[in-house]
Amino acid sequence: MLRPYLAIIKDSFRAAIANRLLIVLLLIITVFLLALAPLNFQESIESGILFRPGARTGNQVPRPDALVTYLIENQDKPDVAKFASYLDKSDLDRIKKDLEAGKDNIHEQIERGETVIGALESAIEDENLYDPKIWDLNKSINQELVDFHSRGIEKLSSGEKKRLNRLLVSNTFPGLVLPPSQSLVKIRYLYKKITESHSGMELYRSQVTIYLPYLMDKFVLSIGLLIAVLVTAPLMPTMFDPGSLSLLLSKPISRWGLYLSKFIGGCVFVALLAAYLFIGVWFLLGFRLGLWDRSILLSIPIYVIVFAIYFSVSAFVGMYFRNTIIAVIVTALFWAVCFTGGTIFKMFDGVNQKTKIAYVVQANGQVLQLNDIGAPAIWDTEEKQWVNAPVDDIEKQNYMANYTFSFLPFIPQGGLPTTYSGIRPVYCPKYNFVIGGANLMLADPNSFSKPRIFYANLENKAYQPQVLGYLSGSGIEFLVRPDGDLILVTGFGKFQRLAGDPEEFIGQQDAKPADTKTTKTNTDQKKSSRGGPSNMNKATQLVDFKKMFKPAGPDQPTSIASDRMVDLNQATGEIAVYNRKKISIFREGNDGDYLLDRTVDVNVPFDSTMTTWIQYQGNQLYLAFGNGEITVFDGNSLKMQKSYIPEKKSAIKQINASPNGQFLVVNYRNGNTWLLDVKDLDDIRKRNFVGQGNISYASFDKNNKLWIADRTDRLLQYDPETLERGNPEYNPKIIGFRWYYWWIRLVYRVLPKPGEFYKLVTHLSSSTETKKDSNLDLTQMDEPSNPWEPFVSGVIFMCIMLALACFVFHRTDY
Amino acid sequence: MSKDLAVDVHDLRKTYSGGFFWSKKFEALKGISFSVARGQTFGLLGPNGAGKTTFLKILMGIISKSSGSATMLGKPAGSREGRKRIGYLPEQLRMLGHLNAFNALELYGNLSNIPTSTVKAKRDHLLEMVGLSEWGKVRVGKFSKGMRQRLGMAQALLHDPELLILDEPTDGLDPKARAEMRAIINKLSDDGVTVFLNSHILQEVELICDHVAILDNGELKYSGPVEQLDSFVSQLNRGASGSTELVVEFELAGSIEHVNEIFPQTTMQQYERIAGDANQHRFKVSLADQAAIDNRVDNLRKRQVSILGLSKQQITLESAFLQLIDDPQEKSATLADPAPLNPPASA
Ligand SMILES: Nc1ncnc2c1ncn2[C@@H]1O[C@H](COP(=O)(O)OP(=O)(O)O)[C@@H](O)[C@H]1O
Ligand SMILES: [Mg+2]
Predict the structure, then answer these.
(1) pLDDT for the residue A478
(2) What is the pLDDT of residues B68-87, one digit of tens each?
(3) What is the residue-wise DSSP string for A552-608?
(4) In a mutational test of the pocket of ligand 1, which residue from B16, B93, B171 has the highest number of ligand atoms less than 8 Å from its CB?
(5) Which of A639-643, B70-74, B111-115, B289-293 has the lowest mean pLDDT?
(6) Distance in angstroms (rounded) separating the CA atoms of residues B311 and B297
(7) How many CB atoms lie within 10 A of CB A94?
(8) How far, in Å, CA of B233 to CA of B327, rounded?
(9) Which member of A47, A127, B79, B267 lies 3.0 to 4.6 Å from A166 by CB, making a disulfide possible if both were Cys?
(10) ipTM greater than 0.85
(11) In angstroms, rounded to a whole number, what is the distance separating the alpha carbons of residues B294 and B315?
(12) Is pLDDT above 70 for A765?
């Protein structure tokens, strides 16, 4: 029964062979493969230091300034002194001076780090660095060092000596210069180095697994797709040649069968070529670079389908107009539309993501929201719109830069500090004001480590924030006590109580420049202060925070890594802290200071760096972990009651417990929101909230009402018992930007997404390994937008195209 | 509908629409009805543009009919069962250039669900039959028009069709090739295959077919046995003028003025000068009977016109055909009003 259709496919190949197309293409691919053949790799002993602040992997310096400080302050240790001796005297003096002067913006920190690392590198080069009086290698915990020692240091090759030196660096600066990976991998073309990987063979492999699909997608595919479309474009017009079409149509075969066989013929043709190309690359990478990467093989079917999507367009046009050139042109236009559509959507989406509600403060009838980059907006009750809250120029610059970065589609989003960081604002009922702190990293390097505190007194109703100054001392969160008082929590685990009405402290401090280097911004500031919000002088410290916040215990603090890991119970007034797999509960003592009441160790299999949230309300304590696990404890006994992983694929974005402790709402990065009612501990469910899948914020207010933000900037209220929507709700009209956004999104959803298929390849090639590890911190990983989405929508598009073509073919008189 | 009918058509109409938003309509078939019995060799005759190909395409399901009914071997026109059992040679067949004759037979055989092995077993015989036995491995692109047509014939015969449908099978062939093609068709019809062919050449239909239908401008003018076409036409003529006419060709030498006194310019058909000489003329006229011829000859001689030649022509199928498909108005002028051909006897 299939014979006629197979004959059509066979005929496509005959045509390709007859006009030498197949041979030419095979030749081109062969030449390409031969050109790749000289690639090779060389693995050698690693002895370098990578300088990449904030990085977590081996071989690196995660906190350059900590390294510098350690080096300066521990000159009495012989090993440290030995390394310090490689530092120029002048440099050493300058660094000391700078440190004393407190010059600690990010650029200065990095500059100092580079100087010190330069010295360490010259020490590594020195084959006579090792001094048995300073280092006792026998006692070293590093097996490699012990081995070197037992072999005899004199007998080491010069490469091994450098390795030894490098190990000594990590030995001398534990945790500050991370130990080196086993080997350095250099990729070469013939004998010329192209790139190198400092992360050892394993990581080098996994990096390639991630980047290769991306590279293939961008380079091989764009050219390959073009060639494939060009060479298959004549297929349909040839079949529809009037001289032979009548005969074809007179044969006892169905028209749709005829069309589809021709289509499949083209796909099979391309599939064979793709298989040759990709299998060739796969073998080359395997034999020449030692990388047996199956993502390359997985690419074959996926890219054939990408081609098929475009071919469905080209075939349709070729069938309709019976003209190859028109088919090629229309397909190219179509590709261009998909590409620009995708790019425009990405730009809009970037901005849209940034403008989603990330945090809400309800303050004395006013509603303040912060979006993803921390830009504040106030609900205007009359206009029923969010209006931007007044901010000063520095803040404005920071937000503009953030929006711009999110707007540029080609900048990798992960690399830039574009999301909000700082101390989240709270409302203090006692003195009727809002306070918060912002790290404006793009516009104000000074706020890198010290958040800029803004404050808005709501006595006169309108939200008019002013900048109080920079808060030093590593404040991470404001907590509001049941009595309306304010607690400032520091990263060291100290609690500080608001000493009185902030108005009393403003202006007490002499207006002195906080930083001498910012004269330029100072003048800017003067200009703006005429028109903009008043008394916002960035360089001015209006308040001495040491006076405004008074220490309130505890005696034995446990450090708090993040504002996620502390919560204040609205019923009991206790403060719960999670640190290093341990829950500590502090209560207020008779003198008003907090003291440790009870602790419990949490027994979890993963290590303590796992992202963790804590919520303690009513008689319920909740922990949530980066791997998606949620654990419910009894608040008093701290006994674990229940533990589950509701959503396995997406990372938790935030959790929040209702003040009575009865409910826990969990918001995930994929926009899903789950609700747990402790009355039935088994019953944690994704509830029927409007906008499920698109929810950016979910939290309870002090009246145990649930607030959920979706659709970028709509804020709705729910009763958690009945799940009924309540009033008021903050539901702006869809206008302007968002109106376009929804349309472009619709178009984007429908069109194929050529640039996104590599994600599926990456997903398929890595998923089996990562899926196994249930202790993975999902928050540290890129949230893949459903990698099958472009595939599925592309295939749907293709099917519609084919169905349409068959219908038109069927209905046409020839 | 009888199972014995190879083709049966009732009031078949086809309107093509084209142009801007299909606003231009063109009626290519204006309600035709006829039938072809099995075993017949049937010719559908008509000038170019009459709608012959349109009709065949409807039978094949290549285009859709607008109204009416058509069946082929008892199945609705265009149905797959019907198409399985017919062999079709389209007009001006141009096979894809990358095929050679063997490949082409394999492809079209496979498309008719004939296994490649069967095609291989049959192809030598078939190619020999159409006179292409030496050409099996030559690209079709290099074939002449006639060779392509013959290969198309071979392809149509691969699956032993019950009905062979040929659209202008001899069109564009040289006389020798035509004769060969006719021989093939005759042999097939002797073997009992029903043949339906389209042609605009009467002679061909006369030579090959036993039944004929005449299509002009989408209308069917005649359908029946070839032998009766003759009498049908004479009847038709008699019905108009009351008598049979004679067509006479004169070859005269003399001044044109004298000739025109006898034969007014309007009555002369196909006038031409012999060898370009202004005083030598060749033309045809229609005359009622022998007496009229004699009368003209006498008058010519009186005016010193030399009679170089004179030949009487029978009404042939050819002229009957030409008359049938003439424009109806023109026809009424020539057939219904023969007066100019018969000048008053007194003249
Ligand atoms: N696809 C078409 N669209 C519009 N008119 C057509 C089409 N095909 C044929 N015709 C017209 O229909 C008439 C009959 O064409 P056709 O059947 O090919 O004539 P024949 O085969 O008798 O020469 C012609 O006038 C032709 O112009
Ligand atoms: Mg025709």
Answers:
(1) 92
(2) 999 999 999 889 999 999 99
(3) ---SS------GGGEEE-TTT--EEEEETTEEEEEEE-TTS-EEEEEEEE---SS-T
(4) B16
(5) B289-293
(6) 12
(7) 13
(8) 15
(9) A47
(10) no
(11) 20
(12) no
Confidence of residue B32 (pLDDT cuts 50, 70, 90): very high
Q: Which chain B residue has its CA at the smallest distance from A255's CA?
A: B62
Token digits of residue A465? 């924030």
> Percent of chain B at pLDDT above 70?
85
Length of chain A: 814
The amino acid that residue A565 corresponds to is M
Side chain identity, residue B26: F
Q: Residues A614, A746: contact at Cβ < 8 Å?
A: no
Give how far Cα A115 sits from Cα of A92, A162, A215, A257, Å.
9, 20, 35, 71
The helix/strand/coil state of A733 is coil
Q: Quick check: A247 and B155 CB within 8 A?
A: yes
Q: Which two tokens stand for residue A385?
A: 């719109």
Q: By CA distance, what is B159's nearest residue in A?
A: A251
Residue A509 DSSP symbol: S
pLDDT at A312: 95
DSSP state of B285: E
Query: In this structure, what token pair is assigned to residue A300?
Result: 């074959």
Average pLDDT of the segment spanning A524-551: 59
Contact flag B93-A4 (C-beta cutoff 8 Å): no
Instruction: Quick: pLDDT tens for A240-255.
Output: 888 889 999 999 999 9
Note the pTM of the prediction, 2 decimals.
0.72
Cα A326 to Cα A230, A267, A773: the distances in Å are 11, 20, 51
Residues of A in contact with B96 (CB under 8 A): 11, 15, 238, 241, 244
- Report the amino acid identity of residue B168: E
pLDDT band at A412 (very low <50, low <70, confident <90, very high): very low
CB B342, CB B243: distance < 8 Å: no
- Ranges A174-188, A273-287, B22-36, B237-251: which has the least confidence: B237-251
User: Least CB-CB distance to B110: which of A7, A246, A249?
Assistant: A7
For residue A720, whether the previous peptide bond is cis, meaning omega lies within 30 degrees of 0, is no
Mutate to test the interface with B, among A246, A259, A262 (most CBs of B within 10 A): A246
With a 6 A CB cut-off, is B178 part of the ligand 1 pocket? no
Ligand 1 lined by B18 (C-beta under 6 Å): yes
DSSP character string of B210-258: SEEEEEETTEEEEEEEHHHHHHHHHHHHHHHHSS--EEEEEEEES-HHH
| Residue A690: CA count within 13 A, CB half-sphere | 17
How much is the average pLDDT of A194-207?
68
Contact A395, A741 (CB under 8 A): no
Count of Cβ atoms closer than 10 Å to residue A239 Cβ = 24
Q: Which residue has the higher pLDDT, A527 or A656?
A: A656
- Nearest-CA residue for atom 3 of ligand 1: B16
HEC per residue, A291-336: CCCHHHHHHHHHHHHHHHHHHHHHHHHHHHHCCHHHHHHHHHHHHH
Q: For residues A619 and A637, what is the distance between their CA atoms, to the nearest angstrom? A: 10
Q: What is the pLDDT of residue A319?
A: 92
A100-140: per-residue pLDDT in tens? 887 777 778 888 888 888 888 888 888 888 888 888 877 77
Confidence bin at A523 (pLDDT 50/70/90): very low
pLDDT of A260? 95
Residues of chain A found within 8 Å of residue B90, distances taken between Cβ atoms: 246-247, 250
**A50 to A45, A109, A695, A726: CA distances (angstroms):** 15, 16, 39, 55
B199 lines ligand 1 (CB under 6 A): no
Reduce the DSSP state of residue A490 to 3 states and report it: strand
